[in-house]
Fold each of these.
Amino acid sequence: MFGYVKPFKPHMRICEFETYRAVYCGLCKTLGRIYGIAARMTLSYDFAFLGLMALGLNDSDAEICRCRCIAHPFKKSPCMVSEEGLEYTASAASILIHHKITDDKNDRKFLGKLGPMVMLRVTKKAYDKAAEAYPELAAYVSEQMKLQAKLEKENCKSIDRASEPFSNILGEIAEGLSSDADEKRILRRFGYLLGRYIYIADAFDDVEKDFKAGGFNPLSRGNKAVNDLDMAEVRTKAEDSVNFTLGALADCYVQLEMKRFKPIIDNIVYLGLKNVFYDIVNEKEKQELRKEDPDQ
């Protein structure tokens, strides 16, 4: 359910993309410093964006240096050094990702559980440490993930209801990016809408796989086709939901004052999110064409 919050690189200046990379690498380093090397395996674009938001809103002390890492041992890359801005984001990521892996394990059959079980052992130490630092957040995420599991067990047909728990979780996390009361209120709504977008994009991305496997996916529930998936119907439902969500997200975003990194965050909010979703749409259209004409 992660990896759907990315910048639209063709519309970024080189210096902006380098700064974005520095935040991404900085979050990776922060995960390793606080929670150990294994925690760096859970890094995602989504939390890099939230880290960027935290730095942009709070204007906390941070600098960009060049350093090596496991992924690029022979080449120094830009890396954001921050003692505050990225620590909360790293902790929130450790809490949510551990719960998400638990959910994946519970959803799969016997052999499919092996991978998540290994990852749970890898992420458990980081989760425990993050939950100790942010007990209220850990309890809230746990509560919402249980509600998510309940909705899936009931085969919820409503994309609005099905997306609610994950949206609430992102709202709770985003609220913690600032200490200002007015900003916290706006950030909660912003995070809720971001979570809703991620959930719908992920559901649309996986809809065919879930349909064939008999897995839960609200976009295929109530589909008119019985033995096959009406992708035109599914696409319309997903597009309508995503367009509404991104419109509301943009309206919410303009109420926030970014002290820095605004051009990068603007790029992600106004261009990156929509581009990621329509990349999925275009890929599915190509797959449909190949089914109709294998020579294409």
Amino acid sequence: MQTILIQLDTDNQASIFDRVVAIDSGVAQIFSCAAVTPETVTSLVHGAIFTRGPADLKHTAIFIGGSSAAAGEALQKKVLKAFFGPLRVSVMMDSNGCNTTAAAAIATARKHMPLTSVPATVLGATGPVGLRAAELLAAEGAHVTLVSRTQERAKAAAETIRERVPQAIVVAGAAADAQENEALCQGAEVVVAAGAAGACLLSQGALQRLSGLKLAIDLNAVPPLGLADVSANDKGVTHHGVLCYGALGVGGLKMKVHRQCVASLFEASDRVLDTQAIYEVARRTAGITT
């Protein structure tokens, strides 16, 4: 029986990127649906679960994508609500690559150092990737400072993480420019830059000025880069005594995680690959055993 991945995309055009990765993950057939909303998704889900018997539903899976992580999460809730009894299929949500990118970034950090009680700063922490990176750092026990352009957004993000990770130690910070970002990174051992494409968050020479910094990860590959001292191709390269990873340096692990997650959807009919589940795949892929 052929594997079928049903791509539910919240954008007006379904992502070509996600379709290519699905093919590279071994999926036989991809059914792509664009402009999907919570109001229109139930009939699509029923089409997925009523066409094969319960024992064969593991050969069907749903991938939720699009450019908005918030829209993707709303869609996921509605998809899961449409299942009942044994009539369900596995689901993965990775709108705009938010979960796989964040998982790869934090697994990269964890590969180099234990994160328990480590002070960490996430720049661009209220974006889709930054929020999830901060959540994963908090789940690993790091003490996380979330930085956004407004204090209100940073506080809301911190509260969201506390709801998802009850033991989280997170504080909110606001920064309007690179100089203010740098001030909020003082004392951090880990810095993750997850800002918008083309936004420089730490200027040239900042890594040298940040005493105690051990690891810096920049997830922006569009010039100007998020961390001016870090190249997009950096993969475990040391600059000013700081171990550095650029977006393309993290990208190899991100792609491996994405492909492995899609392939694993067809191992059972009841998997839900969300932020934490995808992170576990990233940890295993990175060789983290503790």
